[in-house]
Each structure stands twice: as structure tokens, then as C-alpha cells.
Specification:
There is one protein chain. The chain is α+β, with helices and mostly antiparallel strands. The chain folds into two domains: 2-90, Winged helix-like DNA-binding domain superfamily/Winged helix DNA-binding domain (Arc Repressor Mutant, subunit A, Orthogonal Bundle); 159-311, no CATH class. The protein contains 14 helices and eight strands. The chain has helices at 7-16, 18-30, 33-36, 44-51, 55-67, 97-103, 106-112, 115-121, 126-130, 134-139, 142-166, 184-192, 204-216, 257-263; strands spanning 71-73, 79-81, 174-178, 197-202, 225-227, 234-241, 273-275, 303-311. Helix 2 packs across helix 5 (55-67).
């Protein structure tokens, strides 16, 4: 039969076992196999103790992933990293380790098991399957919140310098990144445009991670957490500028129910905090905008021009 196996047949066979491959990658990421191989090739026996798996089981896992090109197996039974597994290393940029762990989380997989019902009804399944929304699930565990923040930084972090270089943010006096995870995009923009003041709005646990990240990037002055009004359930890149009437561009009215419906945005839920680099935590930096559930996304100066990029409802 092997002589009749065509590339299309082989490709479909690979797709059929895709869920098994994803789970194998999850175990390899959880056990940090790529990091354990950082200093050179090792046998399964040499890796077993640090990986916390029996050598025989670990060998089967590594051989399976080696067959897919994730790791390499030599004739003497030693395994080593490849250009593929390099993206599973701690500190890799871009990194896929956190993406592997988040997308193959038990709760996420439980939601995906309802995929046929989702297609039939058109309704999301995560909350029905798990008793909470995806972002409530993320926020319910500090480690999971940190993992999610690193996931976003891992896949979008390399793009932040391009955003900072390609968009003329320097023409604005202030910038607010709403739903900006740990603040990697904001940090690159502020470093490129030192005259711009910035703020990051996020959920409380993520805002604390952002405060630590931004402080490490040199934005310690005036960096504090401030309670903000309830945010709409959408990820926004919001550019704030002083003087509403002096700049051009559409202001997205995402606060009112008709506006939310027009832009396909979710209903408000939860509350957010703000990590504010370069602005005084007591409010003297004039970060007085509010995103309210009963009004458009405009407040006291500086105003907000919001460019919606994705709904997370």
C-alpha cells in the first residue's frame, strides 16, 4: 500500500491526527523539553528526571515529534532541538510556547468539542461548556493570566516595533492602549516617540503584570494602577490626543448600545485598571477619559480616537 500513498493522501492523514499532535506539543511545552535540550543532544534517559516522565514514555513522545520535524533524533538515540522547537524555548522571540499552552488548555479543548453545535446554532460554546467566558477563565488564575499576557507578547511582540515605526504616533500628545496585555506595543511606541505620554488599560491582574513590564522597560516614573470605568468587551488600540476638535479621524462611539451593534462589539463586562507610564497616579497627568457603557468613547481631554481591531465577546 505504501507505494500508492500520494502526497494528498499523506497530507490528509497528517490533518486527521492533528489533535494528537497538538496534545503532544502541549506536553513538550509543559515539560520544557526544548529548554532541557538547550545545551546539546540528550537521550530520553538523560532527560527523564528533569522532564518528570518515565524514559520509555518520553522516548515515544520525542520520537513522535521528531517524525514531524519538531525535534531531531540521531542514530545513537539522542534527541536535539531543531529550528522548529527553537520557538518553544523560554524567551524565544517570536515564541509559540505560550500559544501551545493556551490553545490546548483543557477548558479550550472542552469548548472545541462543541464545534458541531456551534456551527448549527451560531452561538459560542466556551461559556456553555465551562460555566464562564474565555477571558473570565483566563482571569481566574494568576498563572494563566501571566501565560496569556506572554502569549500575546510572544506572537505580537515582534510586530510592535513595526507599529511604532509605521504609524505616526508622534503627532499625538497622549496614547492609550486599551486591552494591550503587558504593554509591549505601548513600550515600543513610547520609546520611539519620547514626547508622547501613554497609558495602558487592562483587567486588574494583567494591569499588574503590565506595571512590572513597563517599569522594567524604564517607565517607572509616575507608573501606577488606577481604577477605570467598566470597559466594553473588545480589544482596542486607542490613540488619545488633547483637543478633540483639532485632529481628524473617526471617533468610534463604542459605548452606546446602537454603536456596539453597529461595530459588532460585545456588551460591557468587568472592570479594568490602568497602568500609566509617565503620568502621575493621582490624576495630575490629566488622564481623565472614561469608557462608559452609557456614552460614546469620548470623555474629558484627552479625547480617544479608537480603532477597533477585534471583538472578544
Amino acid at each position: 500500500m505504501s507505494g500508492n500513498v500520494t502526497p494528498p493522501y499523506r497530507r490528509l492523514a497528517e490533518l486527521v491526527i492533528g489533535s494528537r499532535v497538538a496534545l503532544a506539543l502541549r506536553v513538550a511545552a509543559e515539560r520544557r523539553i526544548a529548554d532541557l535540550l538547550a545545551d546539546g543532544p540528550k537521550t530520553a534517559e538523560a532527560l527523564a528526571a528533569d522532564a518528570g516522565l518515565p524514559a520509555a514514555s518520553l522516548r515515544r513522545l520525542l520520537r513522535a515529534l521528531a517524525a514531524l520535524g519538531v525535534f531531531d533524533e540521531s542514530a545513537d538515540g539522542k534527541f536535539s532541538n531543531t529550528d522548529v522547537s527553537a520557538f518553544m524555548r523560554d524567551g524565544a522571540s517570536p515564541s509559540l510556547r505560550e500559544m501551545i499552552l493556551i490553545l490546548n488548555d483543557d477548558a479550550v479543548l472542552k469548548g472545541w468539542q462543541q464545534f458541531p453545535a456551534v456551527l448549527e446554532s451560531g452561538e459560542p460554546a466556551f461559556a456553555a461548556a465551562n460555566g464562564m467566558t474565555f477571558f473570565q477563565h483566563v482571569a481566574s488564575d494568576p498563572k494563566r493570566s501571566e501565560l496569556m499576557s506572554r502569549f500575546m507578547a510572544g506572537i505580537y511582540g515582534p510586530e510592535s516595533s513595526k507599529i511604532a515605526a509605521g504609524f505616526p504616533c508622534g503627532r499625538f500628545g497622549s496614547l492609550i492602549d486599551v486591552g494591550g496585555a503587558q504593554g509591549h506595543v505601548l513600550a515600543d511606541i513610547l520609546q520611539r516617540h519620547p514626547g508622547v505620554k501613554g497609558a495602558l488599560f487592562e483587567l486588574p491582574k494583567t494591569a499588574e503584570l503590565a506595571r512590572q513590564f513597563l517599569a522594567a522597560k524604564g517607565f517607572a516614573r509616575g507608573l501606577g494602577l488606577k481604577r477605570a470605568a467598566p470597559l466594553i468587551g473588545v480589544s482596542l488600540l486607542a490613540l488619545a490626543f488633547t483637543g478633540c476638535g483639532t485632529a481628524t479621524g473617526a471617533v468610534v462611539g463604542a459605548g452606546t448600545a446602537p454603536a456596539r451593534a453597529q461595530h459588532g462589539l460585545a456588551e460591557p463586562r468587568g472592570e479594568a485598571h490602568a497602568a500609566v507610564p509617565g503620568l502621575e497616579p493621582d490624576g495630575s497627568g490629566d488622564v481623565r477619559c472614561r469608557i462608559r457603557s452609557s456614552a460614546s468613547v469620548i470623555g474629558e481631554p484627552p479625547c480617544i480616537m479608537a480603532l477597533a481591531n477585534s471583538s472578544i465577546g
